[in-house]
Design a protein that fits this description.
Elements lengths: L6 E10 L2 E11 L4 E5 L6 H8 L7 E6 L2 E5 L2 E2 L2 H10 E4 L11 H12 L4 H14 L15 H13 L5 E5 L7 H16 L3 E5 L3 H7 L2 E6 L2 E6 L1 H6 L4 H10 L1
Parallel strand pairs: 3-9, 3-10, 7-8, 8-9
Antiparallel strand pairs: 1-2, 1-4, 4-5, 5-6, 10-11
The protein binds adenosine-5'-diphosphate and magnesium ion (MG).
Adenosine-5'-diphosphate binds next to strand 2 and helix 1.
Length: 250
């Protein structure tokens, strides 16, 4: 028997008022798979990710994630279960959202201390190890304002990892960065992928998608218009809309 998918989304529909943003999304992400989501601005990529950790509630459809039913046709997990689920689903945004008044290390340890009940010594050991992993061991006592964008985003990744998530969601994690800082963040994400993290990544970094993605999903107008392995999507897409989109970003 194959393991159940880590994320299974079925017929997801989401509207904001009369604006139908997701129009029946079906998507599965298996354990240790990396799914890259691409598509034009406004196609619903962020909304889809936000539905996967309960930041948005879809009116219709089902999301099973990390072995739990997060959304069931408008019904949501109870608050307590939702909070626990959110610790298992790490999210990294375009804007890093670090706590500006806390040191780098404190940004990473605050989650395990407040949400996982971890003690100071243990959380600091974990935080130092994660900062080393993202290449920022020497920045642990620095304040966020003194860091470059690429360093801030690597702290944000370490902070998400401190919850020991089973799934990581990335929403355009390098879009706000100067071009020369993109590589250092992608490198950390590639490391996570190599270690077997299950990941759903909205990005237009095609080098990352080609190297790391098991599946590339193309969204347009609230629908998945095609999905496949990177070679096929980038070299030989079925849909004219995919071709046009790729021409526009490459
Ligand atoms: P993408 O990430 O692909 O650019 P989004 O999911 O951010 O797309 O947005 C899809 C559509 O949903 C857009 O029309 C956007 O204006 C709308 N939308 C997103 N979030 C909200 C919100 N919180 N309230 C109202 N409309 C929203
Ligand atoms: Mg977006």
């Amino acid at each position: 028997m194959t393991a159940p998918a880590m994320i299974k989304i079925s017929q997801l529909h989401k509207s904001f008022g009369s604006n139908q943003v997701l129009k029946g999304i079906d998507l599965e992400v298996d354990l240790s798979q990396v799914v890259v989501v691409i598509g034009p601005s406004g196609s619903g990529k962020s909304t889809l990710l936000r539905c996967c950790n309960g930041l948005e509630i879809a009116q219709q459809g089902v999301i099973d994630i990390c072995g739990q039913r997060l959304t069931d046709n408008g019904a949501m997990l109870a608050e307590k279960d939702l909070n626990r689920l959110r610790t298992q689903v790490g999210m990294v945004f375009q804007s890093f959202n670090l706590f500006p008044h806390l040191s780098v290390l404190h940004n990473v340890t605050i989650g395990p201390r407040t949400l996982r009940g971890m003690g100071a010594a243990q959380s600091e050991q974990l935080g130092e190890a994660l900062l080393a992993k993202v290449g920022l061991a020497e920045k642990s006592s620095a304040m966020p304002a003194s860091l470059s964008g690429g360093q801030k985003q690597r702290v944000a990744i370490a902070r998400a990892l401190a919850m020991e998530p089973k799934v990581m969601l990335f929403d355009e994690p390098t879009s706000a960065l100067d071009p020369e800082l993109v590589g250092e963040v992608l490198q950390v994400m590639k490391l996570l992928a190599k270690e077997g993290m299950t990941m759903m990544v909205v990005t237009h970094e095609m080098s990352f998608a080609k190297e790391v993605a098991d599946t590339v999903v193309v969204m347009d107008g609230g629908r998945i218009i095609e999905a496949g392995v990177p070679e096929v999507i980038f070299k030989n897409p079925k849909e004219a809309r995919t071709r046009l989109f790729l021409q526009a970003i490459l």
